[in-house]
Amino acid sequence: MTDHNSSAGGVDGDRTSGEQGRSAAGWPAGAQQQPQSPQAAAPYGYADNPPVPPQQSSDAVRAQVAAAWVRSARPGPVPPGEAAVPVLPPQVSQPPAASKKDQRKAAQEAKRAERKAAYEQKKAEREGRKKGRGGAPAAPAQAVAAPAGSSVPAASAGAAAGSAAVSGSQARAAGGAGFDVPRPGGRLPAQGRRTHVAVRAALLITTCAFALGSCGVAGLVVGKSSVAVGDADLSAKDVERYRLSEFPITAAATFAEEYVTLCMTYSPQNADKRRDALTRYASSGVDRDCGMTGQGTQSVRQAKWDGTVEELPEFGANGRYLGIQVKLSTGRITTLSVPVYVKDPATGSGLRIAGNVGEMPLAARGSAPAVKQDEEVVDQTLSNQLKGQVLPGFFKAWGASDTTGLTRFTTPDASQSATTGLAGALASPEVQEVVALAPEGSEPNATITYGQGQAVQARVTVVWGGAAAAAPAKGTPPPTTSVKRSYRLTLVNTAQGWFIKDVRGGVLDPTGGRADAGATASAAPVPEENPPAAGGEPAPGASPAPKTP
What span, in angstroms and rounded, lies between the C-alpha atoms of 401 and 426? Predict the structure, then answer.
């Protein structure tokens, strides 16, 4: 019997007989509700955020179930004492529906878990390829999404998915093999970076070692070549010529000069003192009078080593013959060969005159070569102009060191010799000869033009007439003497005329040869009015009577 006044019949009274027998929830009356898979129940597009069905109260659901059961039950008598309403299924307490904010948060956590699982999977695959082991790659992990309204949190589902991905990645790493090629601009794998750094470090260390080795070899070669000097490079003659031996030439020459000065100075009054002084220089068998016979008087003006050295075979490296040039008070010049012994050549100590001296002729003089002046072109016009207009005023100011006057004749960048002068040592200059040389490439007897700033060379001869010869007596004019001097000048052409840039002394003789052709090597004696005494002091009024041994 149907209760049409019940709330259950009013709720679902519009259903047909075919629809009866199913509960309002969609399952037959009295049947147990089976949970469905979220992926199967959720339509396409709602996997991540499925729609939530409208929630009803538990009493309304119970009423709907009872009404559906009554409609599907067969009519019949109701036993006494029993109600017409069937026994309702036990009430199931459902959790409250989650809000949209919680649903979005759960969906974001699920996506984050999926991304983490994919990263772990790729990482495991890379590690497997690095190890190079064989095997089948693991299947990709599937993300496990928790259904909406489930008591399992989304984070737990993501963790499970991550664990599954890691397991699959490890399986793939165990069997994968190969290597990664980074994308353009990407980073190398960790192992590749370590290998790259190791290779670079090895190359750098190898390069440094090679450079140090090369420097060491070069240093050994240079040091060996600088230290080792072959004996065959210089002959014995070259060694003596350039004084490369260990014999102390300077100390021995000074010792020989002192001895020759005593030897060539003689006076009968000082014979004993002279003999005692000579014995302090010579060995025991040397003539104590140094060859003087006791007659005559003479003295030495200058005794100087002339640079000649001859080996003394008896003493080897400890002895030499030295040539000493002597100028006597009589004006005669001669040379003495003196044997000198040195006990210790390294320190120059233990000097001794080891024999008697011998008088030798002066060293032969050479001839000067002729100077080629065939290619020189003389500008006679410029020579006359400089001789008459420029050089007389310049040499007058230059001889007196007139700074103001010199600025009128010198260039701003003139040399020190051109702007200093003679400070009055010579005066009254007379320019006697000027030879101005034309620039290279000029034709003889042709008109020569000069550009601004062009320099020329000139040879100038000046006669100075203001040099004082000696101190004059009172009331008499100072005597003067004329001297001729030659100079080399550098002149520069400017818009204002010719100016002197540099002055140098001395001019070469183009003829060459020798002026004393056919003359003897020894100079003729020049008598003196008042020759010095034997001790080197002058003897006024004494007539010279020198007599050499």
Answer: 10
